[in-house]
Automatic annotation (TrEMBL):
<dbReference type="GO" id="GO:0009615">
    <property type="term" value="P:response to virus"/>
</dbReference>
<dbReference type="InterPro" id="IPR000183">
    <property type="entry name" value="Orn/DAP/Arg_de-COase"/>
</dbReference>
<keyword id="KW-0597">Phosphoprotein</keyword>
<dbReference type="GO" id="GO:0042176">
    <property type="term" value="P:regulation of protein catabolic process"/>
</dbReference>
<keyword id="KW-0210">Decarboxylase</keyword>
<dbReference type="GO" id="GO:0042803">
    <property type="term" value="F:protein homodimerization activity"/>
</dbReference>
<dbReference type="InterPro" id="IPR009006">
    <property type="entry name" value="Ala_racemase/Decarboxylase_C"/>
</dbReference>
<keyword id="KW-0456">Lyase</keyword>
<dbReference type="InterPro" id="IPR022653">
    <property type="entry name" value="De-COase2_pyr-phos_BS"/>
</dbReference>
<protein>
    <recommendedName>
        <fullName>ornithine decarboxylase</fullName>
        <ecNumber>4.1.1.17</ecNumber>
    </recommendedName>
</protein>
<dbReference type="InterPro" id="IPR022643">
    <property type="entry name" value="De-COase2_C"/>
</dbReference>
<comment type="similarity">
    <text>Belongs to the Orn/Lys/Arg decarboxylase class-II family.</text>
</comment>
<dbReference type="InterPro" id="IPR022644">
    <property type="entry name" value="De-COase2_N"/>
</dbReference>
<feature type="domain" description="Orn/DAP/Arg decarboxylase 2 N-terminal">
    <location>
        <begin position="45"/>
        <end position="281"/>
    </location>
</feature>
<feature type="modified residue" description="N6-(pyridoxal phosphate)lysine">
    <location>
        <position position="69"/>
    </location>
</feature>
<dbReference type="GO" id="GO:0005829">
    <property type="term" value="C:cytosol"/>
</dbReference>
<dbReference type="GO" id="GO:0033387">
    <property type="term" value="P:putrescine biosynthetic process from arginine, via ornithine"/>
</dbReference>
């Protein structure tokens, strides 16, 4: 393994036969005799590439605009920029980040329906024209601050079956949509299309069908009023890991017929989407170290069995928590599952365990109940599928720093990246079979200890 970097990328280059799991083990071994066993990520950029190829195979008509808010790591942004993806930005800072790596304004949509006037002006000065709206007040702001904007009307959806609902905050009803289009006409503002979002963690693909049908109605309203409507944005809600209740292809198999029905390929309508977790969730694995441990004896009266009467539970404290990477438990309703880096012995006894973060807040609980063998301070736990809504929202509460991220990519993945950068994305590229590093659990054969784990979850 060797470290590779140029002005665009900085990652550990995996030689043939090495995987992301090897990097995890290497990093753990490097600090085995040290007291500085800080939490860290290993992120496989090849996995992001693999998702990109899978996207075009499953949704050939839909151009992806990556939702930067999901994970704004510079290496992820650079990778997707090199692959030719577009970007969904929600703020001036995200627009600056994306443009700093050379993304042209035509590949950016300012997909925040409620924008600060100064940030609308920044978008105008930066050449970013596509932006969403869902109210008359927003129309008035854009008319004054960015009269050349190309507006996309965001409509509400039935997101009642999504894990994280968004239509409670954003989106116009069909009735309101007509009024907004009429008002845009009066203000001489250009409306080019319609967008929607079925909610993050969508569990019912039929929600997309109804939303696409509603978008068709709003398109017809716009055309009737004289607008040149040519953009449909179907938002996000696509799963990023294989343990999701609803598989990616289960959703796309429903979306494609709906698009063909309401927006056929000869309609001239450009279709985009805003995938976030889809691209990054499975690419990131987090390694945390046990920094403290507490044994709690459960004294059960009325038992003649001394061992049963003094059974114990274990509390493990690790060096990342809900104020850091595990904020996904609070804000993204995530249920995380620990993997033990050290394989337990076949006859090892299991105990009911809980896992806690390092801060002084009692809220900082990662896993409430999980059967695991007895571990020691200094042992490691791994958490897969930690790329979505984790590092982007992590804080340094109590002075605990965010984990370092170590990026990796295999040789076939890098070669394919180079090909796509030089020649552009071509249909035949998606058919290539590239060997990418497997996830840590697949590669090592380590068992998850979670089938019966109860992840700490709090509704906010």
């Amino acid at each position: 393994m060797s470290s590779f970097s140029d002005e665009e990328f900085n990652f550990t280059y995996l030689d043939e036969g090495f995987t992301a799991k090897d990097i995890l083990d290497q990093k753990i071994n490097e600090v085995s005799s040290s007291d500085d066993k800080d939490a860290f990520y290993v992120a496989d950029l090849g996995d992001v590439l693999k998702k990109h190829l899978r996207w075009y195979k499953a949704l050939p008509r839909v151009f992806p605009f990556y939702a930067v808010k999901c994970n704004d790591s510079i290496a992820v942004v650079k990778t997707l920029a090199a692959l030719g993806a577009g970007f969904d930005c929600a703020s001036k800072t995200e627009i600056q980040l994306v443009q700093s790596v050379g993304v042209p304004p035509e590949r950016i949509i300012y997909a925040n329906p409620c924008k600060q006037v100064s940030q609308i002006k920044h978008a105008a000065n930066s050449g970013v024209q596509m932006m969403t709206f869902d109210s008359e007040v927003e129309l008035m702001k854009v008319a004054r601050a960015h009269p050349k904007a190309k507006l996309v009307l965001r409509i509400a959806t039935d997101d009642s079956k999504a894990v994280c609902r968004l239509s409670v905050k954003f989106g116009a009803t069909l009735k309101t949509s007509r009024l907004l289009l009429e008002r845009a006409k009066e203000l001489d503002i250009n409306v080019i299309g319609v967008s929607f979002h079925v909610g993050s963690g969508c569990t019912d693909p039929e929600t997309f069908v109804q939303a696409i049908s509603d978008a068709r109605c709003v398109f017809d309203m716009g055309i009737e009023l004289g607008f040149n409507m040519y953009l449909l944005d179907i938002g996000g809600g696509f799963p990023g890991s294989e343990d999701a209740k609803l598989k990616f292809e289960e959703i796309t198999n429903v979306i494609n017929p709906a698009l063909d029905k309401y927006f056929p390929s000869d309609s001239g309508v450009r279709i985009i989407a805003e995938p976030g977790r889809y691209y990054v969730a499975s690419a990131f694995t987090l390694a945390v170290n046990i920094i403290a441990k507490k044994v709690v004896i459960k004294e059960q009266t009325g038992s003649d069995d001394e061992e049963e009467a003094n059974d114990k539970t274990l509390m493990y404290y690790v060096n990342d928590g809900v104020y850091g990477s595990f904020n996904c438990i609070l804000y993204d309703h995530a249920h995380v599952k620990p993997i033990l880096q050290k394989r337990p012995k076949p006859d090892e006894k299991y105990y009911s365990c809980s896992i806690w973060g390092p801060t002084c807040d009692g809220l900082d609980r990662i896993v409430e109940r999980c059967p695991m063998p007895e571990l020691q301070v200094g042992d490691w736990m791994l958490f897969e599928n930690m790329g979505a809504y984790t590092v982007a929202a992590a804080s340094t509460f109590n002075g605990f720093q965010r984990p370092t991220i170590h990026y990796v990519m295999s040789r076939p993945a890098w070669q394919l990246m180079e090909q796509i950068k030089e020649q552009g994305f071509q249909a035949e590229v998606e058919e290539q079979d590239i060997t990418l590093p497997q996830s840590c659990a697949w590669e090592s054969g380590i068992e998850h200890y979670p089938a019966a784990c109860a992840s700490a979850s709090i509704n906010v």
